[in-house]
Amino acid sequence: MYDFLKIVNIVGMIIAALDIFLVVSGRNVRGQKMLMLSASALLVHVVGVYLEFTSTTPEAALNGLRMQYLVAGNAALFLMMFLFEYCGSKCPKGLWIPMLAYNTATFALVMTCDSHDLYYKSMTFVEDGLYPHFETEKGIFYYIFIYFFIHLSLVLLYIVFMAEERITTTQSRVWIKYARKK
User: Fold this and answer.
1) Rounded distance, CA 88 to CA 175, Å?
2) Number of helices (H) and strands (E), helices first, in the chain?
3) N or C: which end of the chain has fewer CB within 10 A?
4) What is the pLDDT of residues 110-123, one digit of tens each?
């Protein structure tokens, strides 16, 4: 099972790298930079998961965990900004600036989690079980982070459902322009 999970993780890295390649090599679309940033953040996150997953020491696992949180919130933020741009509008500063600040604060908390209990109250490196990993007791900011992700997911769903007609219209215009060029 451990080997299967490693293979799944490697496949995830390959898919994220291919996603970046396709975004870069494809035709320009509105919001392409945000989509590339989101795909790059996803790749860094998957590599962090793999590093934590294959670690044999607590220090290596903690570095993998920190790598994941470097981009965890920003991947979703960049995806949200891409959706706004693709739909022909700008992401309000009142929405993305607090989210970026919160993601940065979360990253700072995870980078320093061994010296406080705000994000993780306790972390124990366990080598038993399917693979070596951390067992953690969550702190208050962990639950705020989860709430943030649920909130951001709802915002993304709202954007997609409210802009469905606009996306279809935008896609139609892009295909018509592309067909006329040939």
Assistant:
1) 16
2) 6, 2
3) C
4) 899 888 989 889 88
